[in-house]
Amino acid sequence: MGILLGLLLLGHLTVDTYGRPILEVPENITGPWKGDVTIPCTYGPLQGYTQVLVKWLVHRGSYPVTIFLRDSSGDHIQQARYQGRLHVSHKVPGDVSLQLSTLEMDDRSHYTCEVTWQTPDGNQVVRDKITELRVQKLSVSKPTVTTGSGYGFTVPQGMRISLQCQALGSPPISYIWYKKQTNNQEPIKVGNLSTLLFKPALVADSGSYFCAAKGKVGSEQHSDIVKFVVKDSSELLKTNTEAPTTMRYPLKATSTVKQPWDWTTDMDGYLRETRAGPGKSMPVFAIVLIISLCCMVVFTMAYIMLCRKTSQQEHVCEAARHYSTLASCHQKTSGRLSSASSEDQLHPGSFLFLQGQTSFN
């Protein structure tokens, strides 16, 4: 009987523990002086449980003071000293972490995260957890150098690019950029900001760079040396456009063929190399197409001129034939008229005879 009661009690505790939301908060967290810190406070959302209230409290003296309140009307910061430096997460369900910026030494204290839910049966459940915030003056860490370019540390000439130096620690943090020299000479100072900007990058800017970071606490820290390379744009273009192809065939002839578009083929026992001259990237099919079009235009013009010449010759012949016909007709007509005139002169009585017959009739 006792064992049965123990199992029932354990089942009740299990339901009470795992059937309701549980807050996850670390026991303590350390933030950098003059820096930013996030105090985690999360829970796993449960079906039927609705978050209705979120509070953050700080322990001052013998009792806690509310510094943040979130309810149905929105977010409210309760203390003036936290205005502009306090924010509570709300984008991710179940995440109500506290974010504090520009930490001061008197921000060290115990903080309480308190969340209230409404249960499926209409009741309310409250859970809270306490954590300790520690504020320390942290020395700067070893800085890292990055670039926002997709080219990495090798870029084309003329590109606007910057190198970023970043270190962790209590601000303010000062940065200095150096460029290494040859022959073991001392590095030269090239910048005093966290960003080293090249606008634009030149081939002369190529070299080895590193940055140094120094904070209020600790010693100066140096980054690893990075090799920054700026390539000439013409070299990059030449590298991309030139595609040499090497073919070997046993040939006995030795000749050099030079075309107007500067394609060169050298053959000396073997066909050694075929490549396009600098800046000549016109495809062969385009050249063949242009030549074909030119030939078509020439043939068309020649055909048109030949047709016009033939038409003019036919017109001249037709005019000559017409003129000959007219001349022949004129000669025949002149001959008839001459014959008639001769007959009239030789037989004058014929007209009188005809006239008499006409009168008789």
Key attributes of the depicted protein:
Immunoglobulin-like; 361 residues; Ig_sub; 6-stranded mixed β-sheet; transmembrane; alpha+beta; disordered C terminus; 28% helix; signal; single chain
Could you characterize the architecture of this molecule?
The structure is a single chain. Among the domains are: 16-136, Immunoglobulin-like, CATH 2.60.40.10; 144-234, Sandwich (Immunoglobulin-like). The chain is built from four helices and 22 strands. The protein has helices at residues 2-18, 233-241, 284-346, 349-360; strands at 23-24, 28-32, 37-39, 42-43, 50-60, 63-71, 74-77, 86-88, 98-100, 109-118, 124-136, 144-147, 154-156, 161-166, 174-179, 188-191, 195-198, 207-214, 221-222, 226-231, 250-258, 263-276. The strands form six sheets. Strands 2-11-10-5-6-7 form a six-stranded mixed sheet, with no helix packed on it. It is elongated, with a radius of gyration of 53 Å. This is V-set and immunoglobulin domain containing 4.
First-residue to last-residue Cα separation: 176 Å
Oligomeric state of this protein = single chain
Strand count, sense and barrel status of the largest sheet are: 6 strands, mixed
According to CATH, what is the topology of the domain at 16-136?
Immunoglobulin-like
Order of strands side by side in the largest beta sheet?
A: 2-11-10-5-6-7
SSE pattern, N- to C-terminal = HEEEEEEEEEEEEEEEEEEEEHEEHH
| Class per helix and strand makeup | alpha+beta
**Helix content, binned percent:** 25-40%
The best one-word shape is elongated
Alpha-carbon Rg, integer: 53 Å
Organism: Callithrix jacchus
InterPro entries: Ig-like_dom, Ig-like_dom_sf, Ig-like_fold, Ig_sub, Ig_sub2, Ig_V-set, VSIG4, VSIG4_IgV
GO molecular function: complement component C3b binding
Keywords: Membrane, Signal, Transmembrane, Transmembrane helix
